[in-house]
Amino acid sequence: MSLPWNDLKAGKRPDPELIKEQADKYQNWAARMPPLKNWYAAAVDELPLHIGRVACQRSNCWWDSRQRRRYATSVITMLVVVVIVILVPALRNRFSVEDFVLKVAAPLAPAFLLGIWQFREQMEAASRLDKLKEHSERLWDDTLSGLSVAEASAKARVLQDEIFENRRKSPLVFDWIYKRLQRDYELQMNHGVAELVADAKSRLALAQRSPHPPQ
What we know:
The chain is mainly alpha-helical. The chain is 77% helix and 0% strand.
């Protein structure tokens, strides 16, 4: 993103030795993960940095929100299926309320509570990301309407801080979920960025032809 480091939000910069150590550890299992290099759509290279950066931030929020909602929906669907699978045999065997509570509900309660917690936390994180995505879209419009490079960069730094804060607060998503969704989401993200690039080029060309600079 080529943004200045924010000590207040992220703390002291990590030592280069620590970065090297963690990079070496990553190489030991990198082959098991889809490549993260050049993760953002290549089309942003066609835009000035202060504009393309905002497109990347929007992609970040869009992808993470969609992924978390998909995961949360899967969790609650699994819980419903488990309830049905357990409840039907219990009714057929005419379990008493006491037997059902002791033999079925109590042993499964921790798993259900964990599933409900995952669903709630993931949906809350997705809602925060939706708001950040809306903010990135407003920043996109402001930047293309004549916001200076310095102002756009400062606002992007604030937005990136909020993306970081949301990531810090949010529960993790399993790697296999990311792998499963990556191909479809990457195609959708690239399409969305291509639309943004076309929009930016059109508006920038119009601004250059205009006798009066945008206010």
